């Protein structure tokens, strides 16, 4: 069984309190960083660890930190992005609910590394219990002298605030999050300037995912090189995966990056296989916005190599046959699930969550949703399928923020891999209402690639 | 800084956007812009009609940009090469954007006051597809009343945010804004207040479509039957430089002076716009030059001066000029 870094003590009773958390070695990273390391050394450790952003894009965290502009006399901010709203992803909520001090410890170390004296944890508005938990934990830490002025007698000051959002998916986009934090309408900003230059209140800002911040704690405790030994290649360390769908054991799992997808789905340590003795049909590997893959392509890459849970292996094959690790929302669909309905459900979500700022996304998401609704309920036409592909192409890449891409990819990939099922919904409209298309050939072995000498 | 747009090179100041560089060159290569307004800080980047392809980033870093960029918000780099109408990719993307803008926009041009000076009409005509593929109901809104001078038609709005920026930057209070999100977001006032301050009328001028129109002009006339004349008056609130729109001898509308890109040269106050509609209030300067490509000048059906103008020499001159222009056509 692989070593856990973030969730090691998750089952200890009372780990959400400061007392128990410190007994289990908590806040050692704060002591180590503030007393023995300079901020630049902390950044260097994170760079060495190869930690990549856990929010979805996978940008190296150390690199992001080193881009932060450091002009004299201007405050810098660290903002933690706890606006987790991607359908299928629930790892940050889990972390904040059960082990809030890990996040706070990470925030102190990261703020110290960046030279920020005010930091924010922006939490999605619907997660009110988690906000209360974090506020309580912050009060505990403050009483113990771990926050506020002169932390642990080192002369470093940090104020940490929790800010509830209004409950919008778009506020998980970093610039929209900053707008919302400033008290404005959560519309993404046009980049450049990037937040590292002009972010919150026009000051240099770093925005990091909850899990990225939490991962800083084991990195500081054990050293970046030790952390980098876990994982494969450029995907280092451990990752929280929110597994859901038709599996025996849904939940949040901490895995070493590099576990084969097949093992993750079928081993008893993780998902425990498909529930009710069904067969695997498709997997959305990284939250709703990444391309959906049929069973044969998620288990093996197009070159017939086993697919691993890493940033590189999951995206092997590009958009044609690959997907992305994203934020780790692993949704498994069994043979009874309807891909058309699933795609419609996703696009309904994006239609609801589009901010309405730029026209392709504002109008296009609604359009796709209506066409998919028509297909799902048996009023579709053959031309609708090509229309959807065309509309998704017109949205993709033409918008201010990645929400347009996120809305287009699931639709485009579902049609690419499951076109038969869409066509069946048109030709057998009556039947499509009463029963599902089933597994069909989606789990068949991949065709052997012709080796070109 | 040297930038090349569709093969035409120009030297511009650092910090100029691609769109403004293209406007300096002028002609067909200027990307259309529905939301960008050079007089309003922070505008642009939203409508995506001005997308262009950067085929060479700069002299230092010649890699092309991976995606199409909004030319109104992308500043030029030395040696940058931009493709607008020479790139099929841009033409295709723009066609897509126009289609998106039109799927929820009512095609009620025959009863819309903006017809003839509507940017979306021009855009659809020049860059769009002839047919729509959208087969669903368009979105509708409950009508709200925002005062006795300005009419809001939310169904026609394309959410360019220009009027929001105008209220923020030209007037001292902003009473309206965007409510909701996505395609059901709307321009509205909080609990249906009236928009009322000295410069609120400028939202009519900046609106690219017929979503905000002048209640004192509504349904009085089609814009191509009216005659634009430049005039000024001493105003203690604004510059007082306006365009008067004549129907016969009556001033039926007052607007700011708009340039070829539909942007006003200077903002005017509500007194000038709504309350001074007599020729005697104004010092007439001469006819307003309107591009003969515009429907405002091209579609005058009568090819002789309107008979009611007999005494005012300036209006006579204006008529004469228009007569010459039309007979030339």
Automatic annotation (TrEMBL), chain A:
Matching InterPro entries: NADH-UbQ_OxRdtase_51kDa_CS (IPR001949), NADH-UbQ_OxRdtase_suF (IPR011537), Nuo51_FMN-bd (IPR011538), Nuo51_FMN-bd_sf (IPR037225), Nuop51_4Fe4S-bd (IPR019575), Nuop51_4Fe4S-bd_sf (IPR037207)
Pfam families associated with the record: Complex1_51K (PF01512), NADH_4Fe-4S (PF10589)
Catalytic reaction(s) noted: a quinone + NADH + 5 H(+)(in) = a quinol + NAD(+) + 4 H(+)(out)
EC category name: translocase
PROSITE patterns assigned: COMPLEX1_51K_2
Stretches assigned to the NADH-ubiquinone oxidoreductase 51kDa subunit iron-sulphur binding domain: 340-385
Gene3D superfamilies linked: 3.10.20.600, 6.10.250.1450, NADH-ubiquinone oxidoreductase 51kDa subunit, NADH-ubiquinone oxidoreductase 51kDa subunit, iron-sulphur binding domain
Top-rank taxon: Bacteria
Keywords: 4Fe-4S, Flavoprotein, FMN, Iron, Iron-sulfur, Metal-binding, NAD, Oxidoreductase, Quinone, Translocase
Cofactor: FMN; [4Fe-4S] cluster
E.C. number(s) listed in UniProt: 7.1.1.-
Role summary: NDH-1 shuttles electrons from NADH, via FMN and iron-sulfur (Fe-S) centers, to quinones in the respiratory chain.
Family the UniProt entry places it in: Belongs to the complex I 51 kDa subunit family.
Full protein name: NADH-quinone oxidoreductase subunit F
Organism of provenance: Mucilaginibacter limnophilus
UniProtKB/TrEMBL annotation, chain B:
Protein localization: Membrane
GO CC terms: membrane
Main location group: membrane
Domain 4Fe-4S His(Cys)3-ligated-type: 89-128
Cofactor: [2Fe-2S] cluster; [4Fe-4S] cluster
Residues annotated as domain 2Fe-2S ferredoxin-type: 1-88
GO molecular function, one term: 4 iron, 4 sulfur cluster binding
The keyword Metal-binding appears for this protein: yes
CDD domains hit by this protein: fer2
SUPFAM superfamilies: 2Fe-2S ferredoxin-like, 4Fe-4S ferredoxins
Keyword annotations from UniProtKB, A to Z: 2Fe-2S, 4Fe-4S, Iron, Iron-sulfur, Membrane, Metal-binding, NAD, Translocase
Family: Belongs to the complex I 75 kDa subunit family.
Name recorded for this polypeptide: 2Fe-2S iron-sulfur cluster binding domain-containing protein
UniProt organism field: Mucilaginibacter limnophilus
């Amino acid at each position: 069984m692989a070593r856990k870094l973030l969730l090691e003590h998750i089952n200890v009773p009372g780990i959400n309190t400061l007392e128990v958390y410190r007994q289990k070695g908590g806040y050692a990273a704060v002591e180590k960083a503030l007393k023995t390391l300079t901020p630049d050394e902390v950044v260097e450790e994170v760079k060495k660890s190869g930690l990549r952003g856990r929010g979805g894009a996978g940008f190296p965290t150390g690199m992001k930190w080193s881009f932060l502009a450091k002009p004299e006399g201007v405050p810098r901010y660290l903002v933690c992005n706890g606006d987790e709203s991607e359908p299928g992803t629930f790892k940050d909520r889990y972390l904040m609910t059960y082990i809030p001090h890990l996040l706070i410890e990470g925030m102190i170390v990261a703020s110290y590394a960046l030279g920020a004296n005010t930091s924010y944890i922006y939490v999605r508005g619907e997660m009110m219990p988690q906000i209360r938990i974090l506020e309580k934990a912050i009060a505990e830490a403050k009483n113990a002298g771990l926050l506020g002025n002169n932390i642990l007698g080192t002369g470093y000051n940090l104020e940490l605030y929790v800010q509830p959002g209004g409950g919008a998916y778009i506020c998980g986009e970093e610039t929209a999050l900053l707008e919302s934090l400033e008290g404005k309408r959560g519309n993404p900003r046009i980049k450049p300037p990037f937040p590292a230059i002009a972010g919150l209140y026009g000051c240099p800002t770093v925005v990091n995912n909850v899990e990225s911040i939490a991962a800083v704690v084991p990195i500081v405790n054990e050293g970046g090189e030790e952390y980098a030994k876990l994982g494969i290649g450029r995907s280092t360390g451990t990752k929280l995966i929110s597994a859901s769908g038709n599996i025996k054991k849904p939940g949040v799992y901490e895995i070493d990056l590099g576990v084969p997808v097949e093992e993750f789905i079928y081993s008893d340590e993780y998902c425990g296989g498909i529930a009710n003795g069904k067969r695997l049909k498709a997997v959305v590997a990284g939250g709703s916005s990444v391309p959906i893959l049929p069973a044969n392509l998620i288990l093996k890459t197009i070159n017939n190599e086993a697919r691993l849970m890493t940033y590189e292996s999951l995206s092997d094959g590009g958009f044609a046959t690959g997907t992305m690790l994203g934020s780790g929302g692993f949704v498994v669909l069994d043979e009874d699930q309807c891909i058309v309905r699933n795609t419609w459900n996703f696009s309904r979500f994006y239609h609801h969550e589009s901010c309405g700022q730029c026209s392709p996304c504002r109008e296009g998401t609604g359009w796709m949703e209506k066409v998919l609704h028509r297909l799902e309920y048996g009023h579709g036409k053959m031309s609708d399928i090509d229309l959807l592909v065309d509309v998704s192409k017109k949205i993709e890449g033409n918008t201010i923020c990645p929400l347009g891409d996120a809305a287009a990819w699931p639709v485009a990939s579902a049609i690419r891999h499951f076109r038969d099922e869409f066509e069946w919904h048109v030709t057998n409209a009556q039947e499509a209402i009463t029963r599902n298309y089933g597994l069909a050939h989606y789990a068949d072995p991949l065709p052997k690639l012709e080796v070109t000498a | 800084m040297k930038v090349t747009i569709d093969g035409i090179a120009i030297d511009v100041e650092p910090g100029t956007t691609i769109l403004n560089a293209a406007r300096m060159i002028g002609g067909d290569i200027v990307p259309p812009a529905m939301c960008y307004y050079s007089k309003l800080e922070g505008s642009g980047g939203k409508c995506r009609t001005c997308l262009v392809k950067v085929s060479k980033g700069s002299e230092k870093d010649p890699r092309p940009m991976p995606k199409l960029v909004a030319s109104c918000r992308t500043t030029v780099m030395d040696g940058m090469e931009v493709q607008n109408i020479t790139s099929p990719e841009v033409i295709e993307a723009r066609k897509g954007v126009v289609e998106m803008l039109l799927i929820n926009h009512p095609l009620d041009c025959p009863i819309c006051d903006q017809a003839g000076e509507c940017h979306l009409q021009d855009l659809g005509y020049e860059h769009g597809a002839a047919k729509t593929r959208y087969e669903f109901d368009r979105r509708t809104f409950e009508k709200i009343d925002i005062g006795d001078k300005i009419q809001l038609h939310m169904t026609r709005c394309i959410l360019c945010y220009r009027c929001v920026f105008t209220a923020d930057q030209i007037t001292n209070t902003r009473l309206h804004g965007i409510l909701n999100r996505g395609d059901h977001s709307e321009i509205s006032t909080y609990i249906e207040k009236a928009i009322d301050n000295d410069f609120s009328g400028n939202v009519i001028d900046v609106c690219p479509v017929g979503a905000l129109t002048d209640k004192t002009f509504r349904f009085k006339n089609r814009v191509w039957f009216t005659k634009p004349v430049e005039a000024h008056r001493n105003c203690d609130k604004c510059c007082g430089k306006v365009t008067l729109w004549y129907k016969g001898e009556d001033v039926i509308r007052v607007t700011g002076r708009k340039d070829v890109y539909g942007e006003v040269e200077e903002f005017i106050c509500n007194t000038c716009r709504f309350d001074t509609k007599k020729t005697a209030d104004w010092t007439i300067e001469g006819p307003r030059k309107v591009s003969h490509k515009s429907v405002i000048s091209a579609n005058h059906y009568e090819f002789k001066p309107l008979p009611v103008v007999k005494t005012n020499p300036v209006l006579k001159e204006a008529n004469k000029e228009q007569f010459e222009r039309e007979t030339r056509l």
